[in-house]
């Protein structure tokens, strides 16, 4: 589950977009439309969709390719997609809201909220919640495993399997830590750490994590096309393009020229690290609300954008608390995230002056570099 763009400590005020100015208009940037069409030209990415909110609050939606390779139907404009690790932004905001409320401190140990729960077993015997802080989970410096031990052979064998968050955590606790928590100059992206944060938020708020996100974020800022799927929910609300993944041979190598429809599966394997579904325009609305202060106090947003080095990420990228700082080719720093769930690849970010872009394509294992290059171009555009 990859990520994309966010940084800077200064809180920049962005005008809140009302219903009238958020409405899509048929004014397309021809260069961006051509770039989106180039992404799908060879068919490895069947469909692409993008929503752009310009600096004045006007929204334009773009599509390219096909929404279904069998029927050759069009990609639905601003359709629902699995936003994968963009979910981490929502999880981080939920935690930081509890920090704003004085119910959590970023440097509190996990043990304070889940006593006796975080104790490693087997190879993970040294993992201990008394030595891991909330901040370390948020910025991936806890040392918790980057592995997903419950899906060793990918999504297909478990696509209809439901996983409870505690089951995900217990499996992660059998894995050796990547490094000691907070060890100098160490960073490792961990979905398990965000599953654990979901359990912390649930414990502190006294409600299921899905309710915490829905009540404190989604409903609070009026995101009508964003949701946290409930237990057993394997579908995506309509309209949506279909998501695909390439088949692999016995050696794990991709079989070129073929695609498997993986639109329907149980996303519980990702939990608070990557379970959510939304439309591109709604993700942009979330980014605007985050930046203009409707979700966090200035101090909370500043903490979110305090970054650490993120080895393995592209040059110029750093990780904050559930958000990434990304230096764009045009010299601007954008703020956001991104994610890869089976069948969908998404990238989302906002610039300091309020230009928000969310791009989604319907194969998470192809064209990643090309998508990032196009995403950078879309954020740097002036229209």
TrEMBL record:
Start and end of every Beta-lactamase-related domain?
Answer: 36-367
Q: One MF term in GO for this entry? A: serine-type D-Ala-D-Ala carboxypeptidase activity
Q: Name one Pfam family in it.
A: Beta-lactamase
Q: Would the keyword Protease be found if you checked this record's keyword annotation?
A: yes
Listed A to Z, the keywords are: Carboxypeptidase, Hydrolase, Protease
Task: Return the EC number.
Answer: 3.4.16.4
Q: Does the keyword Hydrolase apply?
A: yes
- InterPro entries, per this entry? AmpC-like (IPR050491), Beta-lactam-related (IPR001466), Beta-lactam/transpept-like (IPR012338)
Please identify the protein, giving its name as recorded.
D-alanyl-D-alanine carboxypeptidase
Q: What is the lineage of its organism?
A: Bacteria, Bacillati, Actinomycetota, Actinomycetes, Pseudonocardiales
